[in-house]
Amino acid sequence: MILGTDPLLSGNIDLTAVLIVLMKVGIAFAFLLVAVMLMIWFERKLISDMQNRIGPSVAGPWGILQTLADGIKLFFKEDLIPNRSDRFVFKLAPYLSLVPAFLVFAIVPIGGDFRDGKEGIVTWFGRETLVQVADPPIGILFFLAMSSIAVYGVMLAGWSSGSKYPLLGAVRSSAQMISYEAALGLSIATVFLMSGTLSTNGIVSDQSTWNWNLATTGVVPFIIFVIAGTAELNRPPFDLVEAEQELVGGFHTEYSALRFALFFLAEFMNVITMSAIAVTLFLGGPNGPILIESVSWIWPPLWFFLKVGMFLFVFVWLRATLPRLRYDQLMDLGWKVLIPAALGWFLLIAALNIANDRQWQSWIVIMVGLIGMTIGALALMASIRKAKSQRASQEFEEAT
């Protein structure tokens, strides 16, 4: 099932098919490593420009090799393991964060011709295949599973360190993941309703005629996905898991050398894969205009990388602009805003689909849905306000 619906594997699997699969895996892994190096340099350089600083400028032209220099330095540093740690879990945790990031990127289509019902199929070495490592029929469920597994690396790193500050960071990471995973899943569910498939290739094929899910789902799921995805990545302003002012370094306080580098490699790799998933779900993936027909193969990957680059810029922009949220604000946003909004919009999209099937008046369904969502929002706000008032009065009575 992981091999999925790739036409390369639909018939007899010979040596050529195996070599093509291995080539795709190697290219995807090498691309991610290089992309992480460039992303770290891009973030440091862009933030320095926003803050009127120079940034990396010594190693290589424009400091572009600074990330490589830092990686080499960390590789040769001494690897420290705390005396009270669980040594096996302590060593395993960085890989539990790194591996899911690569596996998620494996299901992302980064190229291919989706015009005229071609479904992204290309011909390599005389064999038809897809420009992605795998296309399982449950691709997006696979993404949700891997994003949930990745938090185990953070949780186990904090628990196995045998120290209090890493443990607090691990507890925060589990609470944050639970809070925002529900909103993330509900925002993706609206894409299922519109596309009728869980396959990433099928979702991109459904958007091949410029009917991108950004518009067909009503923009709101896209906004919720971006906010929840930022929280899933532990990126600012949701980086409470690290919070160096409070937790020294959070879950990775006791890590050093190569294992310390693996955590940050996983963090930046997750940023790239989350951007790629967002592009696949809402912005048509590699779909875009073919400007020169003679080199039509180059345009889909070009549009894909440009869209991903736009998301990476937004992530860096948010980091340079927004202050870190308090933990109560983090929880309130997830449970009291994003989850109700995602659930209400999902029900509205489902009602619209039923209305289209039964030939009802869509505008009536929209009006009823918006009125119902407004009433629900007002009731939720009233209950929250009443709960805060009761809590404040109770604390005042206890204090006096």
Question: What does the secondary structure layout of this molecule look like, with pairings?
Answer:
Blueprint: H1 15-50, H2 66-75, H3 87-105, E1 121-124, E2 127-130, H4 139-160, H5 164-195, H6 200-206, H7 213-216, H8 220-232, H9 244-247, H10 257-282, H11 299-321, H12 327-357, H13 362-399
Helix pairs in contact: 1-10, 1-11, 2-10, 3-4, 3-10, 4-5, 5-8, 5-12, 8-10, 8-12, 10-11, 12-13
Based on the model shown, name its key terms.
two-stranded antiparallel ribbon, 2 domains, 13 helices, mainly alpha, 400 residues
How does this structure look, described?
With about 400 residues, this protein is mainly alpha-helical. The chain folds into two domains: about 5-360, no CATH class; about 360-400. The chain is about 65% helix and about 0% strand. It is built from 13 helices and two strands; from the N terminus they run αααββαααααααααα. The chain has helices at about 15-50, 65-75, 85-105, 140-160, 165-195, 200-205, 215, 220-230, 245, 255-280, 300-320, 325-355, 360-400, and strands spanning about 120-125, 125-130. The protein has a two-stranded antiparallel ribbon. Strand 1 (about 120-125) and strand 2 form a beta hairpin. It is globular, with a radius of gyration of 23 Å. It starts with 14 loop residues before the first helix and ends with a helix. The model has no long low-confidence stretch (mean pLDDT about 85).
β-strand percent reads under 5%
Radius of gyration from the CA trace? 23 Å
| Low-confidence residue ranges | none
Report mean pLDDT, rounded to a whole number. Answer: 85
How many distinct domains? Answer: 2
**Structural class category:** mainly alpha
Helix-strand string: HHHEEHHHHHHHHHH
Total count of helical runs of at least 4 residues:
13
Count of DSSP E strands?
2
The global form is globular
Distance between the termini: 64 Å
Strand order of the largest sheet: 1-2
Helix content: 55-70%
Largest sheet descriptor: 2 strands, antiparallel
